[in-house]
Write a structure and sequence with these properties.
- By secondary structure, the protein is an alpha+beta fold.
- It has two domains: 1-34; 37-167, Immunoglobulin-like (Sandwich).
- Helices cover 27% and strands 41% of the residues.
- The strands form two sheets. The protein has a five-stranded antiparallel β-sheet with strand order 6-3-2-1-9, covered by helices on one side. The chain has a four-stranded antiparallel β-sheet with strand order 5-4-7-8.
- The chain is globular, with a radius of gyration of 22 Å.
Length: 171
């Protein structure tokens, strides 16, 4: 009789162990997924200086690819016109420095009215400038995780929308 009790309890313990391992693995995959996807919600209230009267908004998504060597991005915007620059900015301690130029007016000119995709593409380490020049995409990701990277969308009419880049789901 004791043999059956031991066999049953061993089965229960093994089942609980396997179920616990699955929960831990699922949580780790969820965390890893969150650390490879980032978003920024863009508004005038996050601009410098804040512009609470603008109706322009946007959302950006960033996804690590190629084993963490590249980052895909898409920046959508609505109710904005004459966009000249879309820039990732390292911002800390009241100081700001460009780290990635996603779109520049000097190369492309100003846009017309935007209500959808503003810009999309890939970022690689060779695209990094300013304080991240010569560094890797992993350094950009670390700065995103530390809350030091903002996305700025500027216009030729001095309108700006901006937002902090955070892990997806953390906003």
């Amino acid at each position: 009789m004791n043999t059956k009790v031991v066999a049953i309890s061993t089965t229960v313990v093994m089942s609980l162990f396997v179920a616990s391992a699955a929960v831990v693995a699922s949580a780790a995959i969820g965390q890893q997924s969150q650390l490879s996807h980032f978003t920024a919600v863009l508004s005038g209230k996050s601009a410098i200086p804040p512009n609470l009267s603008t109706v322009a908004t946007g959302k950006a998504t960033f996804t690590l690819t190629d084993g963490g060597k590249k980052m895909l991005y898409t920046v959508n915007a609505t109710k904005i016109n004459h966009v000249d620059n879309v820039v990732l900015v390292f911002s800390t301690g009241g100081r700001a420095s460009n780290v990635v130029l996603l779109r520049t007016g000097t190369q492309h000119g100003a846009t017309g009215p935007i209500n959808g995709v503003l810009v999309q593409g890939n970022i690689s380490s060779s695209d990094l400038v300013g304080p991240l020049k010569g560094k890797q995409i992993s350094d950009l990701v670390k700065d995103m995780l530390d809350g030091n990277i903002d996305l700025w969308v500027t216009t030729t009419t001095n309108l700006m929308i901006a937002g902090k880049i955070t892990p997806a789901g953390a906003a």
